[in-house]
Structures are given as structure tokens and as C-alpha cells.
Amino acid sequence: MARILLVDGVLERLQTAAMSLREDGHSLWIARGVSEGRQALLSAFFDVVFTSQQLPDGQAADLVSAAQSIDSALPVIFFASEPGNTDNPGAFDIVSRDSELDQMRRTARRAGELSALRRENLLLRSALEALDQSHVLHGESAAVRALRERISEIATSNLPVLITGEVGSGKQVVAHAIHATSARRSKPFLRLTGSRLGELLERGADPAQSALLNASREGSLFLDEIGLVSSYAEPAILHLIQHAQLARAGSNERLVVENRILLGTRGSLQEVIDPARFRFSWVQRLDLVRVHVPPLRERLEDVAGLCEFFSLQTAADLHVSPRAIGPGVIEKLYGYNFPGNIRELRSLVRRAYMISNGTELRPGDFLLPAPESATADLPSMAGTTAEPGKSFDLLAYLQRTEERLIRSTLHASGGAQAEAARRMGISRSLLAYKLQKYGIRPPSR
Predict the structure, then answer these.
(1) What is the rounded CA–CA span in Å between residue 177 and residue 70?
(2) Which of 31, 143, 147, 405 could crosslink 299 through cysteines, CB 3.0-4.6 Å?
(3) How far apart are CA 407 and CA 372, in angstroms?
(4) Contacts from 350-357 at CB under 8 Å and sequence distance 24+?
(5) Are 193 and 293 in contact (CB under 8 A)?
(6) CATH T-level fold of 298-365
(7) Candidate from 127-141, 155-169, 409-423 with smallest mean pLDDT
(8) For the residues of 5-43, what is the DSSP string, one character each?
(9) Signed CA dihedral, 96, 100, 104, 107: sign only
(10) pLDDT tens track for 210-246
(11) What separation in angstroms does the CA of 379 have from each of 26, 282, 406?
(12) Dihedral sign for Cα atoms in the order 19, 24, 27, 31
């Protein structure tokens, strides 16, 4: 049933409406004006709002504006002062005070169904964005078995979780596994990336984003790539984790968030808990449950099973017959370092399907990048100091060296700019400037 907010200045009318709506199993909240109504909207999520046109401290239009600014999917129903009064822009429907209570109950049911449908659509769109990442945790290596045990240990808790791991190692899969093992498994799972999270925290929760949070209430909220969020948003993240409240831009208002918070960031656990290497010092101070996802090179015994899984998955996506993993493939893959981890292995299998045309995948179908050396192909400096009669362009030489080192490090980081910047000991903004300067396009991830 729906969560309904009733707003009216006359207590008797509120009680009568509440008694009638409770007969249908709805949960009711009562407010006696615009101010109380707005505070209620910030303190809890609702599916339907009923309001009178005239309120003690303002007009119903003020409450409609507040409701739609907080949650764009929230329908508002007016109690009309007269049966023929329909001048209420923004209203889902209008019921007369003189009408039967059954009409109010029918209207509440229709509004609740519409609210649920709107939010279901929001969740479906959000789920489609990460559909290919939502598979279960595959592998039988000792590292994966230990990871499964760790997930089982923490799933029943409501404490925030910090999930660390290299790019492509499966942090989102682990977040899904924590959610699926918890008591919240029947509720939605919502993922926000670092860039989207930064916009949300810096500009405040806009109505569409609030509607998405409302749709996922009481579920799990996975805030991925928190290391990419600007320092400006740091206090807002801290407040969200500590108090389950989201700051709204330009005001002191806080929107209550009813989700369990899961955080994801690139890097090892040792790097993240080291204040000298990880920018967000509050991570060390918070009571966070910590989970590290091992890189694929530390669980190579899982490569064979993962190849089989990705082969079946790719065949289904491409509507072709599955292809067997031929002799020599796994041995070839064992010799590779997998800087892009499981995500890279999945891409290798998909590319192998594009290249091959038989019933099995062969070693030659797996195009592994050639290993690069940070000093490969650099111009030799031999003789420059020994032969002072010769001249050379030092600035050009340094720029060429810098460009090639950046390209090599970016490739070794699997295209992850934040990780490449960390390895080189520079800021991400400086790396972005260097990429633009040298016309370097990061490899596809």
C-alpha cells in the first residue's frame, strides 16, 4: 500500500480522511500547513500527497512546488473547496470535500499505482545501465571463496561498506552480492557513479534524482568510484554516510536517505587507508566495513571458468552457437597480467568471437596487448654528454619522454586516469591537462 501525506489546517478533516484511507491499508502522515508538510517531505519518502487549497501558513501551490522540487514522481491531490473548482495547476486530481469518501480512496489508489509505475520505470532505466555488471560472483579460487565468506559475514549488518579493488576487478559485482545476501534483497539496488554522485552532491538532489532515491528506498545505494568525486563534495559524502542525509544545494535542508550505503573505489585496501596516498582522509576515521576485491592476476585459477562463462554469455548476446575454449588458450592467458582484470577478460572473449568462425576459440583469436616498457623507444642519450660538440633539444626530448611515459602508464592502468595519475604521483587535473596537451586519448575500458 501507499505512504500518504495529508496536509490540512483543520485537524478534524485530517482525522476523517486518515481513518478512511487506513481502511485500505495505507500508511498515513499528517501535517497542518506548508511548513510541516515540507518538513515531512524532507524527513521521509511518500507515494501520494493530499492537500487543501488554503493552508494556515500559505497556499497549496507552495506545497505542490515543494513536493515536485523534492520528488518529480510524486502525485499531489487537492481537496477542492467547491465541487466545480479545478484551478489547481500541477494537481494529479481534485476531489471535492462534499464527495463520498470512496472517491477519495479510489483516487488515492490510482495515484499510488501511478507513483509506483513511475518509480519502477526509473529503476528499470537505472538497472539497464549496469545490466552487464550484475552477474554473480564467479570463481572457485581460494581468494574468491574467502571473498564470499566475507560477504556473508557483513551482509546482515547495516554499517556502510567500503569496497576496494583495481579497475575491472568486480567491485560492483561484490556490491550486488552484499545486497543479494542481505535482508534488503527484496528492495532495489541503485548504483551512482563518481561523476553522477559529484553532480548530485555539488548541486543538491534534484527532483528526478530524489525520485530515484525514493524508488530505491530501504534498498542498497552503491556509490561507485568515490575517488573521482571532487573535494568540494567531500563534506556532503561524509554527512551522507554518517547521518543518512543528503544535502540540498543552496539551503540547509537535508533529505533523508533510507538506503544502506556501499562505497566503491579503485586501489588496494592499504592504499585507501593510507592518508598519504588517498585524498579522502575521512575514510580512515569512519566506522566502515572494508572489503577488498582481488585482481585477476591473483586468482588465475578462475580464468578457465570465467572464459567458459563469458563464452556462453557472448554467444547468447550475439545469437550464435557457443564456442568451446580450444587447447592452448588458457595457457596463453595464464601468461598475461590482466591490467583490466575481469572486464578485460570479458572483452577479450567477445573480440575472439568476432575474429573466429569455427566451433572453438583458439589462442590466435585472443589478441593480447604487447607488453610495454616505460622506457621503450625513447631516444638514446648516449654520447650527448661525452661529445660536447654535438647539440640536442633538451625541452623536446623531455616532452617526448613525458608523453611516452604517460601513454605507457595509462595503458598499464587499463585506461583508468585516476589510477594512472596516482602511479605517476600527480593530480588527476594535471594528468587531464597533459592528455589534452599531447592529444592522448585514453584506451577504451
Answers:
(1) 31
(2) 143
(3) 10
(4) 350/310, 350/314, 353/311, 353/314, 353/315, 353/318, 353/320, 353/323, 356/323
(5) no
(6) Helicase, Ruva Protein; domain 3 (1.10.8)
(7) 127-141
(8) EEE-S-HHHHHHHHHHHHTTT-EEEEESSHHHHHHHHHH
(9) negative
(10) 666 666 778 888 988 877 776 667 777 777 777 777 6
(11) 75, 44, 16
(12) negative
The count of other CB atoms within 10 Å of the CB of residue 99 is: 14
**Mean pLDDT of the region 79-92:** 58
Residue 183, helix vs strand vs coil: coil
pTM for this structure? 0.57
136: left (phi over 0), alpha (psi -120 to 50) or beta: beta
3-state helix, strand, coil split of the chain in percent (to 5) is 50, 15, 35
Every domain of the chain and the residues it spans: 3-126, 139-294, 298-365, 375-445
DSSP label at 227? G
pLDDT at 24 over 90: no
Cell 585506461 -> residue: 415
pLDDT in tens, 118-145: 766 666 555 544 444 444 688 888 999 9
Q: What are phi and psi of 425, to 5 degrees?
A: 75, 30
Q: Is 349:310 a contact under the CB 8 Å cutoff? A: yes
Mean pLDDT for all residues in the chain: 77
Residues paired with 79 in a beta bridge: 52, 95
3-state SS class at 297:
helix
Secondary structure letter of residue 288 according to DSSP: -
Return the CATH architecture of domain 375-445: Orthogonal Bundle (1.10)
Enclosing H/E stretch for 49: strand 48-52
The domain defined by 3-126 folds into Rossmann fold (3.40.50)
Can you read off the three cell numbers belonging to residue 119? 518509480
What are the two backbone dihedrals, phi and then psi, of residue 436, each rounded to the nearest 5 degrees? -70, -40
In angstroms, the CA 285 to CA 280 distance is 10
**Residue located via cell numbers 478512511:** 20
Amino acid at position 216, single letter? S
Question: Do the domains 139-294 and 298-365 sit in the same CATH topology, yes or no?
Answer: no
CB 292 within 8 A of CB 269: yes
Phi, psi of 292 (to 5 degrees): -115, 135
